[in-house]
Amino acid sequence: MKSLKIHLFILGILLAGSATAQHKKTFQWIGGPTYVLQLGNFKILTDPMFSPKGDSAFMIKKHPSTGMANAYIQRYIAPAAFDTANIDILLVSHPHADHFDQQARNALNKQLNVVVPGANTSTLQGWGFTHLRGLNWGDTTEFKKGNETLRIIAVEAMHAKDDPLKTELGKGNGYIIEYTVNHRVYRIYWTGDTVWFDDMQQYTRYGKINLFIPDMGAVGSDGHIGRRGLNSQDCLKIIETLHPDLIAPVHHSTFSMYIEPIAKLQQTLDTTSYRKKLRIVPAGGVVVL
Q1: Is residue 93 part of a domain?
Q2: Cα dihedral angle (100, 117, 161, 197), rounded to 10 degrees?
Q3: Does residue 2 sit within a domain?
Q4: Residue 150 belongs to what H/E stretch?
């Protein structure tokens, strides 16, 4: 009987370890706005930019700093290698040229579940993707696997503060991502391309943010057209509003259009109580959540 109890005890430890591994959560930055979230049995890929390192990674209709038409953007850092197998969801904040490139369109399985701003569903249909869920601000979609639930809520992303640039860039999404298993919720807020706006203060209604993923770079801040994304001061306002457990910035260091170095965010947070919550992940680096 004693031997049986010991065997059952050991089996219980092994099963508990297996369950923990099954529900493991990780974040891997690929470069630019692209990262992979593994949330238990769900694998999420965001804004795919697969272009190689080089002087002409992609073309943008109007350079955000100079205003030059049809300008090529340099990629400083090659996209990190990652396992493209078993991607469950492609999560798209908006399909601008610096968030969804031709290489990704060619490489990705067109049968993927794609969550995209409602206004952009026809664009991705034209690219051949067939399983689309278009979300407008406030809309929600869910995916289930056994006792695991992934809930994605589209929230406002204000690409620029003022018109005409604000209207020209169009609407994009930020997302609240909620992973639930055994009644325990892990919550992520990804900003997408946005500047700070006062209604962000209402995002506290979604509950505790465990992981905050801001798109950084302060794109356009050195030109006359206008800034079209977060700088470190904007990011600090969001952090002070939501008090996240962990901060993992993306959308920095990779492309020549990113103006503000990520070290600026580090310097900004170094003077606050949030300095130990920042994780500047190298391309290809993995953080266990």
Answers
A1: yes
A2: -120
A3: no
A4: strand 148-157
- Please count the structural domains in the chain: 1
Domain that holds residue 219: 24-288
- Within 10 angstroms of residue 242's Cβ, the number of other Cβ atoms is 17
pLDDT digits 0-9 by tens, 43-80? 999 999 999 999 999 999 999 999 999 999 999 999 99
Give the integer Cα–Cα distance in Å for 77 and 165. Answer: 28
Q: What CATH number is attached to the domain comprising 152? A: 3.60.15.10
Tokens of 10: 């050991």
Rounded CA separation 285/270 (Å): 22
What pLDDT sits at residue 84? 84
pLDDT of 21: 54
Q: Which phi and psi angles does 263 have, rounded to 5°? A: -60, -25
Q: Give the type of residue at 205.
A: R
Domain assignment present for 60: yes
218 within a domain of the structure (yes/no) = yes
3-state SS of 93-130 is CCCCCCCCCHHHHHHCCCCCEEEEEHHHHHHHHHCCCC
Contact of 48 with 101, CB cutoff 8 Å: yes
Cβ distance 132 to 125 under 8 Å?
Answer: yes
DSSP 8-state assignment for residue 225 = S
- DSSP-assigned beta bridge partners for residue 149: 144, 180
Q: Nearest-CA neighbor of 255 among 96, 45, 83?
A: 96
Do the beta carbons of residue 32 and residue 98 sit within 8 Å?
yes
Paired strand residues for 22? none
For 89-113, how does the pLDDT look when each residue is reduced to its tens digit (9 = 90+)?
999 999 999 999 999 999 999 999 9
